[in-house]
Every structure is written in structure tokens, then in C-alpha cells.
Amino acid sequence: MVYLPLHFSDVIWCKSGTTYFHVILPENHPDCNERKQSNEKEWLLALLELASSFDLDFMRLYIRRDDLNGVSTFLRNLNWIGGKLVPNEDRDQYIINSACSHSDFEEMLLGDESFVILEFEC
Fold first, then answer.
1. Could you tell me the end-to-end alpha-carbon distance of the chain, in angstroms, rounded to an integer?
2. What is the dihedral angle through the alpha carbons of 89, 82, 3, 28, rounded to the nearest 10 degrees?
3. CA 65 → CA 33, 52, 114, 118, distances in Å?
4. Separation of CA 86 from chain center
5. What is the DSSP-derived secondary structure letter of residue 64?
6. Taking burial as the number of CB atoms within 10 A of a residue's CB, which of 46, 65, 70, 111 is the most buried?
7. Tens-digit pLDDT profile for the chain (122 aa)?
């Protein structure tokens, strides 16, 4: 868990593997201001620095699809902030065609049915 009180009211759930730092942004409730400030660059840099301090190569940022403001802001500025959109995965084919390990299966649980996934190099 990561807590950035200047930017979010809630904790940010994270998971790290050998190369990836997975960050799930808090849900944006209509009756509560989850994001205290709209400066995405500051908290994004803080998360990238955290991932880098863990000696990880990439950070994957999971933005909920129903957070239209957050998704559109990042997609408009994706090239400028050095990120890329992770394409949709065909999980059924992946499971059928490969003998996936337990860790691979855990990676697939953080899917993109509910999230837009952006990847950044640390």
C-alpha cells in the first residue's frame, strides 16, 4: 500500500514482481473527492521513483474505465509522459496454448475488463 495524502484521500494498492510495479488507482466515488489535486505529473513521478527504488524495470498503472476524467487525461498526454497503452489480452487463448505458472495466472487476474492499463519504463 502506498499513501500519497497530498494527492489521494485513499491508499493506493500496489503489487511488485520481479520486473513490474503494478499500481491500482483508488476508485473515484462521485460523493467523495478521491483526487485532491489534478496534477497527475507529481504523483506519477513519485510512483515511478518508488518503483525505481525497488529496482523494477516497469510500472503498470491501472486506471478504472469508469474514471473518464482520469483516463482521458492520461490518454491525451500519453506520449508526453512516456507511457504506452497495454493492449487487451486474449486470456482464454493464453491459458489454452501455454502451461502458465501460478505467477503468470496472478498477472492475468489484474486484467483490463475494468481497467485501462498504462505502462511506463522506470
1. 19
2. -60
3. 17, 26, 6, 12
4. 10
5. E
6. 70
7. 898 887 788 889 999 989 999 999 887 544 444 444 456 778 888 899 999 999 999 999 988 888 767 677 777 777 777 888 887 665 555 556 655 555 555 555 545 577 888 899 98
